[in-house]
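Encode chain A's predicted structure.
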Amino acid sequence: MILSVSLTDADGVSGYGEAAPLQAYDGVSVERVERALEGYTSVLTSSESKNGAQLLDACRDVDDVPAALAAIDMALWDRAGRRAGKPVAALLTDSPAHAVPVNATLSALDRAGAAVQAERAVAEGFRCLKVRWASAMTRAAWPRCEPRPARRPRCAWTPMALGA
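Encoded structure for chain A:
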């Protein structure tokens, strides 16, 4: 589950962030992140005199939950970019990249479904595919899942355990 955050300043400029807690990974539940975000409300509503770093520190003082703080950090950067009329990358460097390569996650649990998703992702321009597997049997079959150069353009594959 992804929790969305919206921060709007006095001028009506909004920024958006997301928290994606994964309890199986770090033990932090969605409910725990929701409580932290709710706890930040008083800090954020009285924030006009603070910059982004000060706001993030104030939220951390209230409740130090990394997924919740990441959502606030993203929303603050997004709002700053919108206010400046620039992508966030342009706020971080004088020569930002024009594009950032990302992977496509193949979520199908059967080989045929994964093959269809892989073909579609490559056709859409993805150059890296993340494959989720559910069992040791699927992992054992991994070498047979490598793309065939004659059928597909060169594409990187990243195995990822289901639930990660």
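The radius of gyration is 20 Å.
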